Amino acid sequence: MDLKDRIKTEIPNHPKNKQKKRFYIILLVMFAVALAVILVLMLRTRQAQKNAQEHFDALAARSGTDSRSSNPAGDDGEVSGTGTEASEAEVEAFGIGVEAPEKDLDWEALHAENRDIYAWLYIPGTGVDYPILQHPEDDTYYLEHNLDGSQGYPGCVYTERLNSKDFVDQNTVIYGHNMDDGTMFHTLLGYRDKNFFEDNRYAFIYTPERIFAYDIFAAYESGDEHILYTYGFAGDSGFQEYLDMIFRSRDAGARFRDGAEVDDGSRIITLSTCLDTRPDGRYLVQGVLVNEKIL
Questions:
Q1: Domain layout of the chain by residue ranges
Q2: pLDDT of 10-61, one tens digit each?
Q3: Which of 85, 95, 178, 179 is nearest to 123 (CA)?
Q4: Strand runs (DSSP E) across the chain, as ranges?
Q5: 142-151 tens-digit pLDDT
Q6: Contact partners, residue 166, CB within 8 Å, separation at least 6
Q7: How far apart are CA 220 and CA 261, in angstroms?
Q8: DSSP assignment, residue 2?
Q9: Helix (H), strand (E), coil (C) string for 253-271
């Protein structure tokens, strides 16, 4: 290095050194601004998610169950217990049927909240206590839209137009997000545990006209294939093939209820949520209709 270059490098007030200093200051300011913007966006997103969940909680409280007052998922999102379980008076087995817990659902008020609400899903002991929606045009709308129409998570529990709204289909697929805060369908992952599977057996769906009771007979990991498009349910034989495939899914974490009466004449629901460990996977919880009551 010659003398001229050394002077440029070593003299603090040299113009080139001033330019470098300004450049680094500008970079630092830009980084700080970008970080601040990211933090603000994260806080807004979290607040929006919290507001959306509080909206659901308020509806659940008005329905008379308020099942998320003791959430079975802790702050870390792990299932830590069975939560508020239905008492024997609420769920009474008689033959192949069950007595459904009472819920005070004001359908006129629910439709005023969102006209796409057409049913309500309640699984005692899991914290799953949500309205079911179906958009009239866009099957993926409620994947990233909340009850009030705002875009973002947690979205809503919903079905697609491939399924009717009267639960007469052989397989009604109901979607919900696996939220890190333990809400929506996150606690369905608790069915991996044998005791949780046994303790939280029944799911109930309420509509303005009927109450449907389902016996949860299977819970397992699956691929991300679209169930209603992939498997043929046009006839009894196609549905039986699908049921046979379910009971062949005997991986280590799968749960199946011995003696469950499920055949090609059954009507089932499939609750589908994402897996944190497998982006291309889904966790499915399935129940067979065992009773329905006309209101």
A1: 47-294
A2: 555 556 666 777 777 777 777 777 666 666 555 555 655 666 677 777 777 8
A3: 85
A4: 93-94, 97-98, 117-123, 128-133, 157-158, 171-175, 202-206, 210-223, 255-256, 268-274, 281-294
A5: 999 999 999 9
A6: 207
A7: 18
A8: -
A9: CCEECCCCCCCCCCCEEEE
Q: What is the pTM of this model?
A: 0.78
112 within 8 A of 148, measured Cβ to Cβ: no
Assign 179 to helix, strand or coil. Answer: coil
Rounded Cα gap, residues 220 and 217, in angstroms: 10
Q: Which residue has the tokens 């680094």?
A: 24
Comparing 65 with 161, the larger pLDDT belongs to 161
Q: Which two tokens stand for residue 210?
A: 């009927």
Distance, CA of 74 to CA of 84 (rounded, Å): 14
User: Per DSSP, what are the bridge partners of residue 220?
Assistant: 284
The bridge status of strand 268-274 relative to strand 171-175 is parallel
Q: Are 103 and 122 in contact (CB under 8 A)?
A: yes
pLDDT in tens, 75-113: 344 444 444 455 555 555 555 567 778 889 999 999 999
**Rounded to whole angstroms, how far apart are CA atoms 146 and 142?**
7
Name the CATH superfamily, with its identifier, for domain 47-294.
Sortase (2.40.260.10)
Phi/psi of residue 217, each to 5°?
-115, -10
Question: What are residue 140's DSSP bridge partners?
Answer: none
Main-chain phi, psi angles of 119, to 5 degrees: -160, 175
Q: Do residues 150 and 37 make contact, with C-beta atoms less than 8 angstroms apart?
A: no
